Amino acid sequence: xxxxxxxxxxxxxxxxxxxxxxSPLIDGYYLSSLPKDKDxxxxxxxxxxxxxxxxxxxxxxxxENKKIGVDSYNDNKIEFTENGVIVRKELRNVEKGTLSIxxxxxxxxxxxxxxxxxKESPFIPFxxxxxxxxxxxxxxxxxxxxxxxxxxxxxxxxKEDKRISEYGIATDTGPTSxxxxxxxxxTGIEEFYTLFLSDHPKKLEKLIEVIHQKNIEAYNLIAKSxxxxxINYENTSTxxxxxxxxxxxxxxxxxxxxxxxxxxxxxxxxxxxxxxxxLVDLLRKGKDDGIxxxxxxxxxxxxxxxxxxxxxxxxxxxxxxxxxxxxxxxxKLKDYVNLILNRANGTDRLIIGSADATPKDxxxxxLKVVGEVIVNAGQSNSKKQDFKEK
Length: 390
Known about the structure:
The strands form four sheets. The chain has a seven-stranded parallel sheet. Strands 4-5-6-7-8 form a five-stranded antiparallel sheet, with helices on one face. The protein has a two-stranded parallel ribbon with strand order 2-10. It has helices spanning about 5-10, 30, 40-45, 135-145, 155-165, 180-185, 190-200, 200-225, 245-250, 250-260, 280-285, 305-310, 320-325, 330-345, 365-390; strands spanning about 20, 50-55, 60, 75-80, 85-95, 95-105, 110-115, 125-130, 150, 170, 170-175, 230-235, 265-270, 290-295, 315-320, 350-355. It is built from 15 helices and 16 strands. By secondary structure, the protein is of the alpha/beta class. It has two domains: about 5-60 and about 150-175 and about 215-390, TIM Barrel (Alpha-Beta Barrel); about 65-130, no CATH class.
């Protein structure tokens, strides 16, 4: 099998592919450590991995259609108006890195978010200030969200998927469920629980429903796109939500998005890179096709073989904690990958990969040895099969 055939066989839950796939989450975080002209397809091929390129969007938001980049770390700013909302974006050089300031201005109110890109994390910024700080900010954000519009970007996706060709697939990114968006990006975890959920639950639930309806608009557009595989980056973890909160505010919302995509024969995966043991039973109930970028300790708390057992109807991907890619020796990692292969017992639902994004300082020799072990295991299984047939 080539990589595209192997991945699609696994993602379609077909039987009989030649071996598990090997596809770490490689994005701008790891690529930032490489020469700027390094092609992502070449990176995957150099480590004997199957390309699952992330974040190739088939859709766009009118509030995101004009961007400023952080690659040059130069001061930069833009301002534009969409549907009566003034949008401002600014990058400003500061001592610790590049400060990002984003604002939405509506009549009588300004929402501001600040975050910082650092040398250690040039792709994912650290939050400093969230959009929603007061109950009035909720109403203002609802005003903004209701004026968000989505447009298609199908041609770019098709072009990149074709460029990847037999080496793998491109994947789209779907909107995050309301509760995860709010906790991670709009309020922060402390204010979410101590202020908004406890003191202003009705306003919070109104915000959740508005975000959900806009997500449905986006997913209906994605469903018409050429993308076969859509990933929702939930970052689910019991460090963010309890089982009770997850069941009330996440499960049915994600099921709604799954139903929309399934009507158009899309494969829907959810990225859940945190601590999941306390949510295993609830995650089993979800309609999503698979759970990806699963992390064992210390980042998470679920071994990949336990995930396979816990979710017998789902594709699972991940299993290699970031610390194993940065701190372990190649021999130790080789032994661990062999352990995964033995414990997984030849499952047709497994894609071995990094748990969350491949770290910027991941050792190349560690990434390469994973691919070597998996490829050799596939060749060994093929020889065994040939012997049986003879």
